[in-house]
Amino acid sequence: MHYDISFPNLGIHLEHVGKTISIFGFEIAYYGIIIGTAILLGFVIATAEAKRTGQDPENYLDMGMIGVVFGIIGARLYYVIFSWDMYKDNLLEILNIREGGLAIYGGVIAAVLTVIIAAKVKHLSAPQIFDTIALALLNGQMLGRWGNFFNREAFGEYTDSLFAMRLPIDAVRSSDVTEQMRMHIQSIGGVEYIQVHPTFLYESLWCCALLIILFVYRKHKKYEGELFLLYMFGYGLGRVWIEGLRTDQLILPVVGLPVSQLLAGVLVVVMGILIVYLRKHHSRYAMLALKTEPVKE
């Protein structure tokens, strides 16, 4: 297998990009290191935001520990369910996440359910919690996509655009290589390469821009929960077009549509309606939240 990755139109050529690093004889996947780093930074961001808004950071450490576990489980289940043909003959492979296979939307869904349950148990405001973790989730998505870079996955169709990424064909899954890519295979020094859209990079940059926007806006929000709605709307808007470029889409059975692209489109519409409606009625919404807020002893 060849390990070089290039962005030829940018003049970038990386000679050896491995998938793992050896520490004291143990092989640790870069994918796992990146996910772990994103989780730790997520804790830092969420607790800092909790302090800024007068909440108890300890609540976020408690919820975060549970949320991370169920988030990873949710992300893996989402991926496995819609890629069942890859796992049905080898069920133990479901437990192997070193090679990737975590779907962000599955993790977000699990995180939302965790917050709702935790807020109910701890008598906290779920909308306030959602706003507090919005930046942490975006940070996780922005960094997490670089795990796809090291795994040579989550890329798009053939392109010769400015950001085109060139990969050795023997370093990617054959199922992700399309006919159009094969028609444009380049042979360099006896090695065959495909050239594709680096959709992991597009999504990471999109999340970075959205993170900056929400960070600036957070002090000007009109009601609790607005930041999270804007996050879901903004992320969905980016995912709709980025997902359309990918060649490893998870397909919804029967209808045959990319499930994440469909879900992103639904979220854009629903979140857009909620954002517009609550912007007009946020005063009434705030009064209702105060009336239903648990009495602190």
From TrEMBL:
The chain crosses the membrane at residues 28-48, 60-82, 102-121, 200-218, 225-242, 254-278. It comes from Mediterraneibacter gnavus (Ruminococcus gnavus). PANTHER family: PHOSPHATIDYLGLYCEROL--PROLIPOPROTEIN DIACYLGLYCERYL TRANSFERASE, PROLIPOPROTEIN DIACYLGLYCERYL TRANSFERASE. Keywords: Cell membrane, Lipoprotein, Membrane, Transferase, Transmembrane, Transmembrane helix. The keyword Transmembrane applies. Its main location: membrane. It is an enzyme of class 2 (transferase). InterPro entries: Lgt. Pathway: Protein modification; lipoprotein biosynthesis (diacylglyceryl transfer). NCBIfam families: lgt. GO terms for molecular function: phosphatidylglycerol-prolipoprotein diacylglyceryl transferase activity. This is Phosphatidylglycerol--prolipoprotein diacylglyceryl transferase. Belongs to the Lgt family. GO terms for biological process: lipoprotein biosynthetic process. It comes from the Bacteria. One of its GO terms (cellular component) is plasma membrane. Catalyzes the transfer of the diacylglyceryl group from phosphatidylglycerol to the sulfhydryl group of the N-terminal cysteine of a prolipoprotein, the first step in the formation of mature lipoproteins.
